[in-house]
Amino acid sequence: MLKCRQLVALSSDYLDAQLSLRQRLAVRAHLAMCWKCRRFVRQLQLTQAVLRQMPEAPIDDLDERARALAAAHRDSQG
Amino acid sequence: MSDQQLLRRLLAGEDAAYRELVQRYQGAMRAVAFAIVGSRHAEEVVQDAWLAVVRSLAGFEQRASLKTWLLSITANLARTRLKHNRREVLLDDLPGPHGSVDEARFDAGDHWRQPPTAWHDDSPEALLAEDELRQCLERTLVSLSELQSSVLLLRERQMLELDEIAGLLEISQANVRVLLHRARLKVFATLEHFEETGQC
């Protein structure tokens, strides 16, 4: 029977679908009975969603860089 | 706009298409460069990669996605730069500002001693609406090792598959999984700390 600490150790692999069938079933069986670990996994998923939606830092020299690259491309075409 | 449409406009030399290209992919390229050469040289590698990309655009055969192609050019240039002083893969864990989910959280029987507490906000939008939390998360990301933060961003923000990350960075998939797990737990600890205390 999986313990909470082991579940936490497997949690990322569980979210990334990296577990064997046997491990996956063990995780699901544990989650079915343990609200603390259910909460943990839910919050870890929320952590992922937050990272996904965090605004990226704007690119300072975007226009300048785009113009330089377009020019470099034209030059390379000779 | 699809890769194909973008490519057509790039080949026509439209400035706006280059703007779109940089905006769409520079973050991922930077994360790859950062993981391989570190912060000091990442910007130079990205710049070299862009030049290599625009010079060979006409020859891009679309066997892979534009993103995969851009990232492999970036990874190759970064590795060339490192050829003579290849870094070891550092799995060493730097401490996060709010810790992690470590053994102190569990009792001798490996059950929770300090279980996760309920959070006030349960959507990413609600959490990110707090300026202070956003800054706090940035601080945690900066505290991660270069490799760890790159792996986290490539997975969570750029949605790359684990084997793709492993291939680009030339590290084992097992190492990618370890780096990712440790990074996630530190970010989790920051969110938890903020939800409990209301401050960073």
TrEMBL record, chain A:
Taxon lineage: Bacteria, Pseudomonadati, Pseudomonadota, Gammaproteobacteria, Pseudomonadales
Species whose genome carries this gene: Pseudomonas mangrovi
Domain called Putative zinc-finger: residue spans: 4-38
Stored InterPro entries: Anti_sigma_zinc_sf, Znf_put
Protein name per the record: Anti-sigma factor
Gene3D superfamilies in alphabetical order: Anti-sigma factor, zinc-finger domain (1.10.10.1320)
Taxonomy, superkingdom: Bacteria
From TrEMBL, chain B:
Coiled-coil zones: none
SUPFAM superfamilies in the record: Sigma2 domain of RNA polymerase sigma factors, Sigma3 and sigma4 domains of RNA polymerase sigma factors
Family indicated by similarity: Belongs to the sigma-70 factor family. ECF subfamily.
Organism of this sequence: Pseudomonas mangrovi
Cross-referenced Gene3D superfamilies: 1.10.1740.10, Winged helix-like DNA-binding domain superfamily/Winged helix DNA-binding domain (1.10.10.10)
Pfam families: Sigma70_r2 (PF04542), Sigma70_r4_2 (PF08281)
Domain RNA polymerase sigma factor 70 region 4 type: 134-186
Location of the RNA polymerase sigma-70 region domain: 21-87
Keyword annotations of the record: Sigma factor, Transcription, Transcription regulation
Keyword presence, Manganese: no
BP term (GO), one: DNA-templated transcription initiation
GO terms for MF: DNA binding; sigma factor activity
Name assigned to this protein: RNA polymerase subunit sigma-24
CDD domains: Sigma70_r4 (cd06171)
